[in-house]
Amino acid sequence: MSIVGEDAAERRIATPSGAHYRRRASRGAATRRFVLGAHVLLAVLATWTSTAFAQDEPVSPPVAQGTTDVPYPAGASGDTSVVLEIVVRADGAVQSALVVEGVPPFAEAARLAALSWQFAPARKGARAVAARIRVRVDFRQEPPSSASPSDTSAPLVSPPSTSAPAASAEPGPVEEVKVRGKRRDIGLTTIEANEIRELPGAFGDPFRAIEALPGVVPTASGLPYFYIRGAPPNDNGYSLDGVRVPLLFHVGVGQSVVHPGLVDRIDFFPGAAPAAYGGVAGAIIAGRTRDPAGQLRGEGNLRLLDAGALVESPFASGRGSALVAGRYGYPGLVLGAVTSDVGLAYWDYQARASWRLSERDMLSVFAFGSHDYFATLDRPTPAEAADGGTSKMAEQFVSDFHRVDVRYDRVLAGGGRARVAATVGHDDQGRAPTYVTNASASLRLEIENRLSRVVRLRAGAVARLDAYTFRQDATSWRTAVVPSSADPPPTNVSGGIFADVVWRLAPRVELVPGARVDVYASSRANAPEGTHTGRGGAAVPAIDPRLSARVTIAPNVAWLAALGLAHQYPTLRVGDIPAALVSVPGFAPGSAQLQTVAQASQGIEVALPGEVTLTTTGFLSGWSGLTDLTASCVQVVPERVGAQPATPQPPAPYVCPSNAPVHGRAYGVELLVRRALSKRLGGWISYTFSRSMREAHFITRNGAEAVATVPSEGDRTHVLNAILTYDLGRRWRAGGRFLFFTGSPYSKHDGRIPLPPYNDQRYDPFFRVDVRLEKRWPVGRDGSIAFVVEGQNVTLSRQAYGIDCATEASPQQTTTRCTPALVGPITIPSVGVEAFF
């Protein structure tokens, strides 16, 4: 992980072309220890530390490689100049180009040409970093006697290979360029898409790297749901370009729900995220799409698991851009050769159209959607078989969602940005026999702009509507109890405003104080009048303060701290559907209590030799108002002694725990040693030691309710990821990944009734090995074709997950025996070809 932050130092340095740059370097660092103090303590400590150190790391600006010529626009006349602000990525490619000054058609010609330029990237010490620079393109028209259709002029970044005579006669005036490293929010881990394509077991998909980061505990190997720093899966927020989605990964094989060619990066906040993120009492996983391309590009792949393609092209002389992409998965064909007990399928689609209204204004429409299907063979118990039940594929997870987002973006005069967006969506998610649907709509406003050289403001507002309904699958022979707390389902309306200030208090100190104010409302169409969730609804305000600090202790060492309070709708369980898979946010009857979490983290990040980064982080989180994830309805079967009754007896009733909210806490230490996987030798070592405790409700043998503080389902004390990739030469690349985590807790059972002490048992540890081998051939200037062999869980490991109970009947009594159930092995091989142009 690169250490990023704006540098306070400024210098003018000469380049070989004679142009001069003024630089503001990115400053790397992050350190975290536990933060339990207050805002004043952070400010005082930060100010004191900043005065003790003043050493700067050397910074060099990007240097253009090859030609930077810009053809003189056809039909144009006269001399003029265009100033561009371009972002050069750490790999030297131009990510985006913005016209700061200039008139058509020269401005658009310069912008489109700049998108194809290549640079030797800016460097901070020995590390390549992203940079934002300004360049000037001078257009000079040839006299009629020597007119040439290819007259060009070049920016002052480097001498052009060919240029108009006026441009080549003498160097132009000095153009001052600010070179800035890409700023990273405190507590943020950013994963670039081009790096994660190398991650073994991720099948070239950037989102799948989340599982390899510290603090992340998978609910089960291959499932796209995680406990993150103790937060249960339904308390973690997923978004794509600010659009909330129920999941970012396809179930099982872990592909993302968007084509990887559309993804620019993944932003991961394990806790205490900036004020812009609200309504989530856990971690934030936010995907960011690439800016519209200035030239035709595309990629496609055909693999053993799926097939996908992406094509993007500008139109109307570059003012517009259109993109279509999609993927269809057929992993069930592969799984069928290994096991007949698992069914798996998925597909997704994306479409985007953008139109540049002016040099600073853009209108876009983005539509995307996804489908997932995961089922396992369900064998009936003897009692169920006697009632006519037969073995069949039972849906364990089915999900469909669709989104349409219309957005207007404007570049502000101070170099900031503003966005206004509206989104509509539809979700259908669940497992047999109960499914939840949601019709949603939202509006959001986001503004970011620099108020001075040391202060940057980020603010906005958001409003959202979610209308939930239930549906039952009448063809399923299993039944589920939908508790009154979730039926009728809620209609939720929420809205809020947020703001924070990125304040460079001193050259080596950055504070980010902020807050958001939200109002959460919930109503139920058929609930009794007068209840908090009745037809009158409930409106609950929430104030979420946030504070983070970055202190650069030395050029390669920094300390980071973050504090935050967050609120979220309570999560209502739907019968015995695991809340890890399906949940409905809304208020319980008679209660207007939100889920609340207080999060704190501190740590230290060190840039080591060899472009290796070491990060250690301590965290502490405390929740209140949590939905009890362990609460499940139990069929209490009385013991029968002696002969069975002559007449049939009614089925034993289900007893459900109360829906009262509970509290919990989590704490731990994370370690990440990381060298970019795109290097010749790259790798990660990610380790988490943590404990997660919470209250839980259990049903006893006599049908009573017991409450106990127990290790949570996400309490896997040790989680280790070790990843290594290596460039073998001749465009061969190989990599491997080892994943290990200890088992989750569970209770001993007497039949179907858990016995105290609760959750004192542990499932067996789990490990798996993933591998990847690639051979790539270049095609043309920018294209390539690769042959990739990849495998997830090549060790054929099975994971203990859940309790499998079987009922045995005899003339004297009926008994139920329960043992840990094994899932898998979910082993996904992949052999395929991918192409880029």
List key phrases describing it:
Maltoporin, Chain A; 22-stranded antiparallel β-barrel; 837 residues; 6 helices; 6-stranded mixed β-sheet; TolA/TonB C-terminal domain; Ferric Hydroxamate Uptake Protein, Chain A, domain 1
Explained architecture:
A hairpin with a 2-residue loop joins strand 22 and strand 23. The longest helix is centred in the N-terminal third of the chain and has 12 residues, at 39-50. Residues 1-56, 145-181, 529-536 and 575-581 have low confidence and may be disordered. The chain is globular. With 837 residues, the protein is mainly beta. It has 3 domains: 6-181, TolA/TonB C-terminal domain; 189-289, TonB-dependent receptor, plug domain (Ferric Hydroxamate Uptake Protein, Chain A, domain 1, Beta Complex); 297-836, TonB-dependent receptor, beta-barrel domain (Maltoporin, Chain A, Beta Barrel). The strands form 12 sheets. The protein has a 22-stranded antiparallel barrel. Strands 1-2-14-12-7-8 form a 6-stranded mixed beta sheet, with helices on one face. A 5-stranded mixed beta sheet has the order 15-20-21-18-19. The two termini are 28 Å apart. It is built from 6 helices and 54 strands.
